[in-house]
UniProtKB/TrEMBL annotation:
Protein's UniProt name: Membrane protein
Alphabetical UniProt keywords: Membrane, Transmembrane, Transmembrane helix
TM region(s), chain numbering: 29-48, 54-77
InterPro entries reported for this sequence: YdbS-like_PH
Domain of life: Bacteria
Record PANTHER family: TRANSMEMBRANE PROTEIN-RELATED, UPF0699 TRANSMEMBRANE PROTEIN YDBS
Keyword Lipid biosynthesis: no
Residue ranges constituting the YdbS-like PH domain according to the UniProt record: 78-154
Stored Pfam families: bPH_2
Amino acid sequence: MTAGEGTVRLRPPNNTLDPRAVGWWRAQWLLLTAAPVVVLAVLGALIAPARFWLLLPAGVLAVLGVGCAVLLPAWWFRTHRWEVTDEAVYVRTGVFRQEWRIAPMSRIQTVDTVRGPLEQLYRLATVTVTTASAKGAVRIEGLDHETAAGLAERLTRITQDTPGDAT
């Protein structure tokens, strides 16, 4: 591509996720934490000789899990960004190790929208953009379900109008 042909460059994406993503991430974290805590607590209640050694880690896990559920999702929300232009899909994720991904329109192969049960509860969706990259698909999680549907439609339209990359 020459400079006049719309060079794709690394730049910060403009859009934030839907604010409900914070609640969705918190719910995921709490469910993930609850499973081992409940198992340890039930075992601690049933096995008297090991009660202390089962309830102590259950308590520690519960405190850590709740702490992470309160702090991490708000932090993730501040760092996750996305944007779609006529040239590319831009996504930035990560807190300690940030990852910036660009998927040029000419490299997009499929666009999928997924809504798991918890996402449906929060009226959210994930858009997955599959490219010819060995790095894998570009995922935009935590979008309002209507925004995700519109985005998938827009990406499909743009990629149909974009000639494929010959490289």
